[in-house]
Amino acid sequence: MRRDIFQAIADPTRRAILALIALQAMTPNAIADNFNTTRQSVSKHLRILTECELVKQQQQGREIYYSLEIEKMKEIDQWLNPFRKIWETRFDQLDQVLSTLKKQENEN
Questions:
Q1: What CA–CA distance (Å, rounded) separates 47 from 68?
Q2: pLDDT band at 108 (very low <50, low <70, confident <90, very high)
Q3: In the CATH hierarchy, which fold is given to the domain comprising 5-68?
Q4: What pLDDT does 1 receive?
Q5: What pTM did the predictor assign?
Q6: What are the boundaries of each domain within the chain?
Q7: Out of 25, 90, 94, 106, which could bridge 67 as a Cys pair, Cβ 3.0 to 4.6 Å?
């Protein structure tokens, strides 16, 4: 069963795994060392992330290394982009209000 990428990132452990492998590829054992859970549980999360193509596997000798699939992460970024623009507009408006209030306070 192919899952949606948003189902994959809904789980906090899977988001933590993505953050871990964002900087460097890691083996399942190295990833599991960062969690207070079983290696099997981490493998299950990695399987889901792999199914959603958020991570890719690379065999190096006897080890499998997992790394982030940047192109797939762009789908998440594209979905968030309209919300980011709304937040930025609201923060700009707040900055203008605070600047006006500060200016009025200095005049008094």
A1: 13
A2: confident
A3: Arc Repressor Mutant, subunit A (1.10.10)
A4: 59
A5: 0.78
A6: 5-68, 70-107
A7: 25
